[in-house]
Each structure stands twice: as C-alpha cells, then as structure tokens.
Amino acid sequence: MPGFDDKDFGAEAAPAHLKAETGTLAQSPSNGEDGVGAYGRGQSSTFGAVEVPASRSSIADASPYMHQLSLSPSMKDRRGSRNSFGAALPIPRSKRQSRLSSVTHADGRPQRPGMPPIQPTREILAGQVQDMSKQKVSAAKDMAFVFDIDGVLVHGDRLIPEGQRTLEILNGDNELGIKIPHIFLTNGSGKPEEARVAQLSKILHQPISTEQFIQSHTPMSALAEYYERVLVVGGEGYRCREVAEKYGFKDIVVPNDIVAWDPTIAPYRVFTDEERATSNPRDFSKINIDAIMVFSDSRDYATDMQIIMDLLQSENGRLHTRAKDPISQRIPIYFSQGDLLCPTEHPYPRMSQGTFRIGLEAMYKALTGEDLERVVYGKPELATYKYADEVIASWMETIHNEEKLPKNIYMVGDNPASDIIGGNMYGWNTCLVRTGVFQGGDNDENNPANFGVFTNVLEAVKTAIQKELGKEFRFEWSDEKVNPLLQSEASSAAIE
Ligand code: G3P
Ligand code: MG
C-alpha cells in the first residue's frame, strides 16, 4: 500500500523506542508551506508513519447543536490531554517497489519468417499512434482524475451509466489508446480494499486495482504502529475486524466481544447465539483498550454508543472503571470520515458517521461537561489528500513507468462539503456533479466547484480532457483508422 517516504519530507523516522515509551502521538509542527492550495504541506515524521497536521479542529462539533441550558461549563482548568490527538494524523509511509509498466511499447513488428505477419495488437498500435502525438501524450500523462465513488460512479450497488463510459475512456478507449491516470477516493468504508474493488469492478465492468483505491479508513493503517489493543466499531458483521487485521493492528476488540463478556453493558441489545459463538470475550475489566477506531457506520447505535461512552469515561480504557480525571485518562478516538449524510436508494440521504459522531460528542459533553477531543480522517481532511497524492504518483509508475505527480489534477465529486472543499483547499481543479448529494443551482454557495458543475461524471471528464488535450480530442479508439492492414482491407472492399 503506498505511503510517504522520509525523503519526501526531509524527515527521519523517530527511533522505535519512543513508541514503547509513550505510546502516544507527538505534537507535529508544520514544516512550512510550498504554496500548494490553502492547505500547505506541513507534516512531521514519527515512528514508521508520517504525521500530517490536522486541518479540522480536534474539538467536538456538538456545542452549536445543543440547547444552551444543557451546556454546563467545566470548572476545572483545561488540562492537556494524554494524547495530542487532532494535532497530527498519521498516514502510511511508502512501501513502494518499482513496478514494470503494464503498457506495452513495441519498437517493431515481430519477425516470423515464412509465417503470416501477426495482427498488430491494440497496445502496439496505440504505441505507434502515441509516438506520432507526443504533445498530446505528455498532456494526457500530466493530468489525473480523482473520483469520488458514491453519487458519482455508483449509487450503492447501482451503476451510474456515465461512470462506466468514463472509465472506458480513461482506460484507453480514446484516440491515443492511452491510459489517462485516475484514482478513486471515497469516504466509503466497511470492508477490505480488495473486496470493495472487486465489487466495484463488477458494477462498473472495468478493471480497478487496489493500488488506485483509497477508502476512508485506508490511511488509518498507519495507526497500527501506535496502539496495541484497539476497539474497532462499525460495519457489517466482523468485516471491520478483518480490515483492521489487514492493516496490521495486533489486538482487535469489537463491540460483540464486550457484549459477550458482559451482556449488562448493553441492556437493549438482543444478542443471538450466532453472535455469541463468533465473538471473542475476555475479561475487559482486567485489560486496557488503547484507542477507539470508528471505521464504518454503526449497525447498532445504542450498543456502540454505550460502549464508546463507557470507554471514554473509563480509566485508561479499562471497562468497569471510571476515570478520576476525564481528560488525562481518556483514550483517543478516531473516526474514518465525517460525512453527515450519505445518498442511498432512499429518497432522502441517510445519516452517516458524522451524525453518529456529533451524537456522541453531545452525549459526552452532557455527561462529563467536557468537550470531546477526536480525530476525523477522510475527505476533506488534509492527510487524506496528501495520501491521495502519493497514490496518484505510485499509480503513474504502474501505468506509465513514470513516478511523478501530474500537474493538472481534477477531483470529481458530488458532495461540496467533502469532495469539493477538500479539493479546492488542496489546489486541485474541482468538478461538482448533479448525480448525488448536490441538488442545488448553478454552483454550491458555500463550496463552489472551481472547474464547474456538470450533469454527470462523463460530462465533467470530457470537458477536462478537452481543456488539456484540445477540443478536437476523440473519445474513442479506432483500430481501422490506425491499422494499415485494416485500412487496405477497407479500401479494397470499397473499390469492390
Ligand atoms: O458518506 C459515506 C460514503 O458512502 C460516501 O462515499 O464515495 O461519496 O465519498 P463517497
Ligand atoms: Mg459522493
């Protein structure tokens, strides 16, 4: 899985012993700006991960949503929390290895004396066409698309037809037969990357690689180096446990393990025999949970909120205890994304992780009088966009054998508060489509897309390509036009 190298930031990895001594995230000052978007480029390096300064406040969002009378200001002096969460979001370091290009460039036709010539393959023909259009080729390699998924390419399991055609064009069905770089950046979550990519490839009828794919929790694999035992919340069944295992988390607890140990912790939960049989109960009054990772949408708000609240109020993550100091003994909590709503088959968008989090923040404030500190990954967080940059560069190496970041990056999204604001802040071109969350007028009032608003993804992509490669660019590959054999066959047929 791609990530950042030390050399990318001029930083050295901190020695491993620091991790054992503190087990916490270090405050991470910015290294300065390089003028890329309003976000800048600050980051620092700790352990085996890279820490990117948080672009969102680490303090709960709940206050504006609460009745003033329910806010009881704390009399205590605000004390530094045990972890400086919110100061920095770790993302994975590069584990990249050199890969050979998947594009075949042939210098000449194979020689097979005495045998009929081999029909030129599309790759060979494309190579020849590309040799004749060097300027367009370099423009095609100097642009890249970053696609949001839900509301742009699909609605849940339902294809948005223009999504398939878009990917066909970018995968080579264009006048150059060239692969135009693109990656997928979704706030979606809840299953391993391999499984989601397989599902999407099937819906879109196009090949998609995990190397060009980022889910909301993908960069959170970096957190595996910081915490020994974690509670993983959300998703169907035990799929998020599977995700955490793949990310390298060593000791993973899910809410079912806790309910199986002490059913009284969740008084409204009806626990099935199957759930009991598949859970892994331990005596959680004797061990500490080091951090909470909300990877995906909760399937049982009552149980998950109860367990999370118990842990946040416990002494260093030990259940059946209450912290003497609610701040310094509070364990960190991370959310994989902050979207309030998600478009589904239902006529109105459904609540997502953001609303779940705000509910928790309000409960925490109401019960303790303190604001909850937390970290939120996913779009529009800076760390997620930095990680995307790295994935684009790595994907460029895979498809074109050139590890570089294209100059002109286009984010295509349906959610102004997530895809568009993040892309704008990061200095990308942003395209807002009308097939998802955005249902407004000419452009979004608060977070307008800087490249424009489009009916669908195909319209956005065609407009962007024409801007970079010329108005006349054809969105179709034609064997006949470039294959001399087929051309002569066609002309003799015409003569006849
Ligand atoms: O909001 C949750 C998620 O389904 C959004 O996915 O692809 O639109 O970022 P996406
Ligand atoms: Mg979307």
Can you put this structure into words, describing what you see?
This protein is α/β, with parallel strands linked by helices and 496 residues long. The chain has helices at residues 6-9, 16-22, 122-132, 134-141, 161-170, 193-204, 239-247, 255-261, 273-278, 301-312, 353-368, 382-400, 416-425, 457-469, 479-482, 484-495; strands at residues 44-46, 49-53, 88-92, 143-147, 154-155, 158-159, 182-185, 213-214, 229-233, 251-253, 291-294, 333-335, 341-342, 350-351, 375-376, 408-413, 429-433, 452-454. Among the domains are: 120-210 and 403-486, Rossmann fold (3-Layer(aba) Sandwich); 218-376, Rossmann fold (3-Layer(aba) Sandwich), CATH 3.40.50. It contains 16 helices and 18 strands. The strands form five sheets. A six-stranded parallel beta sheet has the order 8-7-4-16-17-18, with helices on both faces. A five-stranded parallel beta sheet has the order 10-9-11-12-15, sandwiched between helices. Strands 1-2-3 form a three-stranded antiparallel beta sheet. Strand 16, helix 13 and strand 17 (429-433) form a beta-alpha-beta unit. The longest helix is centred in the last third of the chain and has 19 residues, at 382-400. It is elongated and about 75 Å long. The N and C termini lie far apart (57 Å). Mean pLDDT is 82; it is low at 1-35, 67-86 and 96-116. Bound molecules: SN-glycerol-3-phosphate and magnesium ion. Magnesium ion is lined by residues 148, 150-152, 413-415, 436. One of its GO terms (cellular component) is mitochondrion. One of its GO terms (biological process) is glycerophospholipid biosynthetic process.
